[in-house]
Write a structure and sequence with these properties.
heterodimer; A: about 270 residues; mainly alpha; 2 domains; 8 helices; about 0% strand; disordered N terminus; B: about 250 residues; alpha/beta; six-stranded mixed β-sheet; 9 helices; about 40% helix; globular; binds adenosine-5'-diphosphate; binds magnesium ion
Chain lengths: ~270, ~250
């Protein structure tokens, strides 16, 4: 059988610039970009949905708090425990608190929190908006002369953007407590001495970059969850897909943003 | 008939999705106060038609005028204004399932009429709830309602904005005969009380007969027949006959 190269992939007779998957990827990026512009147009023009923003902030915090408490604490504890041998080789285990605080505040807290929030909050938004979409609830808002984008999407993106810095700060704190527990068990360091040593190497730039990252990741999680949910299709199946794609898209963008932000921040060190 | 009395005017409307041609030259005029039933088999584009009328979907070609405005040409702000006058009852009811009945009803109201007092909002909610006969459900969640109750609340949610036009998407589908009769009565009551012009999409010929002045049969993307119930069903066309025979199987 002869295979026409133009027709060999995807639907018959449809031409792609590169391939079906690649085209779809760039199309998604373009649509996400349009979605973000729409957010900025809608979110900051009155009337505001204050009540719903607060409700969504609460949801974001409530959903992720348990899991980030556990993960943050264990990350701090285990990271400290596993770093000790290599530092001890150089007789430098007294550097442990400052090493750990740099690791947690610069890198681990924002990333761990963002990944957990992407999994818990992003997927939830994808599923929630997705089911509203496929059951025509979003259409119903639209035909009743209200703005579903404003009520559903803007509030959620604002909530994740506002809440992630709070959650990251909390993860950092819990992670340090986990680390302290391990240091205290082994070196009998007091809590004041531990935190003094830990914060001696932390600079304003570290805190700033961490907060910057958390704002960016929060925004990303909200955009990914809402974008996938708001554009869900094909019934129940589409809802599952939207939840799943929300997590994939959020994590993908978070890792790329992590790379970029770290590169830029290091220019200032 | 004065031109101003035509509320919905559609000329040569076409709509396809990819290679699937759904509507292929729809023409219809609906006058003020008239209730018209649109019949057609599943997938014939009935929902697409009313989604175009309410601006949820854009036509490929043709003109769609609602209250003198071309829905696909006007600005977003103008479309919003027009939508205040259009009530849309969804086939799936589309109640906001995270909100109580009360919150469902006030959702469009408080966002469109911003200077209403709490008291006025509550009064409006109670009024529409009693219109649809479901005052007792005010604090219930949609998941606690039966199919017929959901349909009624969906209708109440559109009535709260006092629409001039009602679009009902299969109002009786999935309901038992007794509940269907109640919904038919509600549609007639809404028409009398609110003076609505309406399009009622249905497979249910009892519903069409009870609620509409005129029926239009959608087939292959066009209105095959239009006229009174008797005119349309007094025909030899096989598709139309099948519709009739299936609905009135005992009347044969
Ligand atoms: N948004 C859409 N995208 C693609 N196809 C659609 C869309 N909406 C409807 N269709 C297709 O149009 C046809 C008519 O749909 P619809 O108007 O819902 O039928 P019905 O007459 O049963 O209400 C169906 O084949 C459906 O798959
Ligand atoms: Mg339909």
């Amino acid at each position: 059988m002869k295979v026409d190269p133009e027709k060999s992939e995807g639907l018959p007779g449809i031409k792609y610039f590169i391939s079906e998957k690649t085209d779809l990827f760039f199309l998604t990026l373009y649509n996400v970009h349009k979605f973000i512009i729409r957010f900025f147009k809608v979110a900051f023009s009155p009337p505001f949905e204050f009540k719903e923003i607060i409700n969504q902030c609460y949801q974001v915090g409530y959903r992720s708090l348990g899991l980030i408490s556990l993960t943050g604490f264990i990350t701090g504890f285990v990271f400290t425990k596993q770093s000790r041998p290599s530092l001890s080789t150089f007789g430098a285990s007294s550097w442990l608190p400052s090493l750990i605080s740099i690791a947690i505040i610069r890198a681990l807290a924002p990333l761990v929190t963002a990944l957990i929030a992407a999994g818990k909050v992003g997927s939830n938004m994808g599923a929630e908006l997705g089911s509203m979409k496929v059951t025509e609830q979003i259409d119903a808002m639209e035909v009743s002369a209200t703005n579903p984008f404003k009520f559903l999407v803007s509030t959620r993106i604002l909530a994740t953007t506002l809440m992630l810095p709070v959650l990251v700060t909390y993860t950092g704190f819990v992670g340090m407590m986990g680390s302290y527990l391990n240091v205290h068990q082994n070196e009998q360091t007091s809590i004041t001495a531990f935190f003094k040593s830990a914060f001696s190497t932390i600079t304003f730039l570290d805190i700033f970059s961490s907060l910057l990252k958390s704002v960016v990741y929060g925004f990303t999680i909200g955009v990914a969850g809402c974008y996938q949910g708001y554009n869900a299709q094909n019934g129940t199946q589409g809802v599952g897909r939207a939840a799943n794609m929300a997590v994939v898209l959020a994590m993908f963008m978070i890792f790329i943003e992590e790379m970029l932000i770290v590169q830029v921040i290091n220019e200032f060190r | 008939m004065d031109i101003n009395d035509v509320i919905i005017s559609i000329k040569n409307l076409k709509k396809s999705f990819g290679t699937l041609s759904v509507l292929n030259g729809i023409d219809i005029e609906i006058e003020k106060g008239e209730n018209i039933a649109v019949l057609g088999r599943s997938g014939s584009g009935k929902s697409v038609l009313i989604k175009i009328i309410s601006g949820l979907l854009k036509p490929d070609s043709g003109t769609v005028k609602v209250l003198g405005r071309e829905v696909d040409k006007i600005s977003d702000a103008e479309l919003q204004k027009l939508r205040l006058k259009i009530g849309f009852s969804f086939q799936s009811s589309a109640l906001y399932d995270s909100m109580s009945v009360k919150q469902n009803l006030e959702f469009p109201l408080v966002r469109n009429l911003r200077n209403l007092s709490r008291k006025e909002v509550n009064a409006a909610i109670e009024e529409v709830l009693s219109d649809v006969g479901l005052s007792q459900t005010i604090n219930q969640m949609p998941s606690e309602l039966s199919g017929g109750q959901k349909k009624r609340i969906g209708i109440a949610r559109t009535l709260i904005l006092k629409p001039e036009i009602m679009l009902y998407d299969e109002p009786t589908s999935g309901l038992d005969p007794i509940t269907s009769i109640e919904i038919n009565k509600l549609i007639v009551q809404v028409r009398e009380q609110y003076n609505t012009t309406a399009i009622i999409i249905t497979h249910d010929l009892v519903c069409a007969k009870e609620t509409a002045d005129r029926v239009a049969m959608l087939l292959d993307g066009k209105f095959l027949m239009q006229g009174s119930f008797e005119e349309v069903f007094n025909t030899d066309n096989e598709n139309v006959r099948t519709f009739y025979d299936y609905n009135f199987i005992n009347a044969k």
